[in-house]
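sorry for the late reply, my laptop died twice this morning and i had to redo everyting from scratch. anyway the thing you sent over, i finally got around to it. pasting the sequence first so we're on the same page, its 310 residues, then the predicted structure underneath. double check i copied it right bc i was rushing
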Amino acid sequence: MKTTTHSPPDSGTQANLRGAGLMVMSMLGYGCNDALIKLAADELPLFQSIFIRGVFVVFAVMVLISHQRLAIRLPATRDRKLIGLRLLGEVISTICFLTALMHMPIANVTAVLQATPITLTLVAAFVLREKIGWRRYLAIITGFVGVIILVQPGTDAFTRYSLWALAAVIFLVLRDLSTRQLSAEIPSLLVTLYTAVAITLVAGLTGLFSEWQIPSLRAITLLGVAAMFLLAGYQFGIMAMRVGDIGFVSPFRYSIMLWAIVLGLLLFGEVPDRMTLLGTVIVATTGIYTYYREFRLKQRAEKRDKQVYK
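ok and here's the structure:
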């Protein structure tokens, strides 16, 4: 009698699956953070919510830095301008995104932000002189059509808060372009600390111009848990990008759309309409293709380099 043995999946497959799982968990963390901030906004002004969450985040990051025994230091001169640009992009994109989130369904505003990868690819082509072919140009154009479907200009569904979501995309691109050029010597956790401190300070100072509320135990709990989910999203994201192939793992970022739809439905009774779903599918598909195409081109370049040095 003949027996067949099934060989276990290779380490590459296991790493890819693990990376994909970690990326999905990362997106769940970010989605839960957004939902909890939106819930807390029922009681507290936006900037007060950002400030309280920021205090929790800074404290948690300091604990992690202490645990890893990292030295808190100023970045090298070359990186200071890049850090400054990154913080500018992060702070303004956070304010724009959360302002839109307070007045739009969570699935809609999250879907608009998924245009960031294709926008980044387009801007990188002009700013960093990165070469992109006609296929990616076509994907970018198609993705922007999806954004137009999501925003629905000229209809009753369009509000000025849709523009806040689009502004968030622009400043996220600034953040990501700056991050691309940072030297590898700066630990990611220190960049997180700089970001958390900057957002917290700006929210605190801006909040002085509005009337602050005495937060309830419920609001503080929501924001404290939001901070933990935010950090979990960040940490799982880093872990995901360190295992498996980037081209396989990165597209799972779009799982945040699934989480946004589920959380919006369960917590806020928000049911996406057909146009939202159509725009989301278009933007996500073009974004996934962009990730895939960049990964394939990188593979080809690495293969050419190996052949040259043989």
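Residues 23-303 form one domain.
thats about all i looked at so far, will dig more tmrw
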